[in-house]
Amino acid sequence: MKETLEALLKEALEKIQAAEDGRALQEVRVSYLGKKGPITEVLRGMGKLSAEERPVVGQLANEVRDEIKAKLDKKEQELEEIRISKQLAEQKLDVTMPGRPVPQGSRHPLQAVVEELEDIFIGLGFSVEEGPEVETDYYNFEALNLPKDHPARDMQDSFYFTEELLLRTQTSPVQARTMEAHQGVGPVKIICPGRVFRRDNDDATHSHQFMQVEGLYIDHNVRMSDLRGILDTFVKRFFGEDREIRLRPSFFPFTEPSVEVDVSCGICGGKGCRVCKQSGWIEVLGAGMVHPKVLEMSGFDPNEYSGFAFGMGVERLAMLKYAIDDIRHFYTNDTRFLSQFKRV
């Protein structure tokens, strides 16, 4: 048995040495170390040996197997080094050739607009607050003076999970949650950026998903003139110092009085053109003084505190600022469109 194992070792080493590629080496590995190989057969036949021979033959068989395996691994490494050297010799690189340009990404235009808005309002003393996108009916509607039977809910057709759980239709719930957290003690001065969702047809100016930035300021003796001053400063910093605003009466359930805010057209300078529909003005956002019932539901005494709120669509601001004609461009991931904003 000892002579047999020594002969197997010699034979295997010769075949390993003669192997010229990985395939031949694998055949040697299977032939000698496989389940049907001669070494395995020797180990299976140890039952026929005497008690004195078994440990000697077993030890020798393991030593032979280990040595064959070590030689196989070493030979495999040598063949791999030869293959790599040959490949490098055949595929020489010209290091003097110019490299391939690596495409550089950029901030998404919507993210750039949000960051610009945050910078403006932080500079005006506001802080940034965020909230959940999956919201309860109470914070999305009821806490904002929109009870379940209020007809104004029809303006915000919603994605409901249950009767009390939905994708938020506005970032106003963040305002309600923040007011509630202050437990009736001001001041509260925040903006709330984020995604909102409404069941809407997707076309050039509408999307079922879009972004909003809303603002809220509550303190003693806050007046409509404070709102106008903040919005006028925002418009001049965002659109340019030459732009003006005007306020038009409107209606929102959570503000009273409520206004629509227009900005003078940057194309015609307020003279009238196709972009502003010959009016000289373009609507950009809605605003108003916080309704006393909203203050009261959030724990504030409306006889002691007052405040204003405003809300604007990020996509609309971006479309106006960068002359983008279709809201769907923001969501198609077309690099031809996005690459235009590398300097934004």
Task: Set down the secondary structure blueprint.
Blueprint: H1 2-18, H2 22-33, H3 38-44, H4 53-90, H5 109-123, E1 127-128, E2 134-136, H6 137-140, E3 160-162, E4 165-167, H7 172-181, E5 188-197, E6 209-219, H8 224-239, E7 245-252, E8 255-264, E9 281-290, H9 292-297, E10 306-313, H10 314-322, H11 335-338
Parallel strand pairs: 1-5
Antiparallel strand pairs: 2-4, 3-4, 5-6, 6-10, 7-8, 8-9, 9-10
Helix pairs in contact: 1-2, 1-4, 2-4, 5-10
Structural commentary:
- This protein has helices at residues 2-18, 22-33, 38-44, 53-90, 109-123, 137-140, 172-181, 224-239, 292-297, 314-322, 335-338, and strands spanning 127-128, 134-136, 160-162, 165-167, 188-197, 209-219, 245-252, 255-264, 281-290, 306-313.
- It has 344 residues and is of the alpha+beta class.
- A seven-stranded mixed beta sheet has the order 1-5-6-10-9-8-7, sandwiched between helices. It has a three-stranded antiparallel beta sheet with strand order 2-4-3.
- It catalyses: tRNA(Phe) + L-phenylalanine + ATP = L-phenylalanyl-tRNA(Phe) + AMP + diphosphate + H(+).
Short description:
This protein has 344 residues and is α+β, with helices and mostly antiparallel strands.
What key attributes describe this structure?
single chain, 344 residues, alpha+beta, BirA Bifunctional Protein, domain 2, 2 domains, seven-stranded mixed sheet, three-stranded antiparallel sheet, 11 helices, 10 strands, 40% helix, 20% strand, elongated
